[in-house]
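Q: What does the assembly look like in three dimensions?
Context provided by user:
Components: two
Sequences:
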Amino acid sequence: MNGKRATAFVPGHVTAFFSAHPAADPAVAGSRGAGLTLSDGVDVTVETIDDPEALAAGDASATADASAPITLDGEPASIGAVADVLAALDVCARVDVETDLPLGAGFGVSGAAALGTALAANAVADRGRSENELVRIAHEAEVERGTGLGDVVAQARGGVPIRLEPGAPGHGALDGIPAHARIEYVTFGELSTEAVLAGDTAALTAAGERALSRLRADPRLPTLMDASREFAARADLLVPEVAEAIEAVDRASDPDGDGTAGDGSEGDGGSAAMAMLGRTVFALGTGLSDAGYDPAVCHTHPAGARLLENSDNRHSDNRRD
Amino acid sequence: MNGKRATAFVPGHVTAFFSAHPAADPAVAGSRGAGLTLSDGVDVTVETIDDPEALAAGDASATADASAPITLDGEPASIGAVADVLAALDVCARVDVETDLPLGAGFGVSGAAALGTALAANAVADRGRSENELVRIAHEAEVERGTGLGDVVAQARGGVPIRLEPGAPGHGALDGIPAHARIEYVTFGELSTEAVLAGDTAALTAAGERALSRLRADPRLPTLMDASREFAARADLLVPEVAEAIEAVDRASDPDGDGTAGDGSEGDGGSAAMAMLGRTVFALGTGLSDAGYDPAVCHTHPAGARLLENSDNRHSDNRRD
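A: Here is the predicted structure of the complete assembly.
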């Protein structure tokens, strides 16, 4: 027999621009910047393993493989930040991560996996941590694994987060753009966050700080997109497929060349930018559709990460697997 | 012809306990404490008045009465904090506030009206303010009118907010209990927030600080309820009808008197407490139903206040009025 199970949903997060702020304390380290949380996200299910021996005995309800307690879209996976979160909460559990988002493409899937694990593991093991504590634990795990700097705090908040100050709750500070938008995206492949963050980030950080100043002076979606494009150019991060798509969206949304693009409202062709860090282009409104691409479509997500309402063991008969 | 319109939804908020922290600067003033945001909330629709003369000329689409630009559940109303928010954003508009929540009963309707007005007025008049700025404007209006100290920041956050430090964004600090629950409530009448806040709040604040310490040490829903009950007794705020209901819920949820009450999960009789400040009892789970009351039923709300997705003038044909 297995134990309690809980599922958390964590929105995806595309970063529009950022500056890196390393620190010895992973709760203090992080990034400034801004991005969009997405209704396309990650479901993380944590199930405590109360009686590992029952697995070996072939209990019909037990599908966990003790040697592969983490799965990603059904396949055994190694996700360091997830293992670190379980260790920090002292929880022995299997973790199933499910997402329709592309991996390694700038959607914050690793941060979502860590944060969802923290929320669901705290619930199933009744650890009694507060939301700020759980966000801090996930942020620290993500920073220490080098897989991200600002996704976790943004995903905990939801909406269109602006990261004013880096770090976990108690250190960082957030604001947001009061807007919602239809979002389209196309991914052309992976880009290593670790490799970029391990390189010289001085130019990147200068460009990120400049973009943040611009957005703070005018916290609107079109300014977020413009600032993101300027950031990608100044930080020299633009990849050819993404640059081509951004130009195609511009041509489609502003055929008369008068410089006015859409604002991302429904049915409004909007401008496009590159997800940091991924070979991914995202657009407001119908920007990519209008330009002839076949994008995935979602919306900004109004809420932060949260436990789903059937997260308790009385519902364990409804398991997907 | 009238102008753009936008609608914001703001969750209701019952305060479980609080301490009052007045200050000369209304952005710094506020309260510490904790409570629950509710899926029962307030819809605030703001519609700019572009051409007041069209009203007099009998334009069929114009239903605004220029002499009563604020309505509450369809009736002309005077809500000082709403007028102050419009003034702060320099927006000329009619504001329609609609809610199923009882008024003056401890659900934060006045704070919700102010916060919803800020979000919707910023959208229709394209004021370009950030979310933190809009929350600050609504918080200041509520504090200056003496109608509340902590509802606005809690309603902007959603979930089960813990107010660690008083004040608007940039001054205050929030955490949360990572939980959701079915909530039941019964209201026996109004209680004046202004009168309590204008009185001697020393005992109240000492009791509130003690309750907060207790909850921070154990951020779980049952502890929130226990701390709320202890607070009501120590601050001498309990009214007879509410005290009677709380006792009835205790008897129903713990018939064997063993001291273990429910935790608020679905179908679980849970303990009850008094909403601060109102003649209102609220319970987790099915506490009030089990005790024979006929309560209103809702849930904790996972998200903070937000603009609804049809908030733009292309949808103005779908008006309710």
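Follow-up: Chain B has ten helices and twelve strands.
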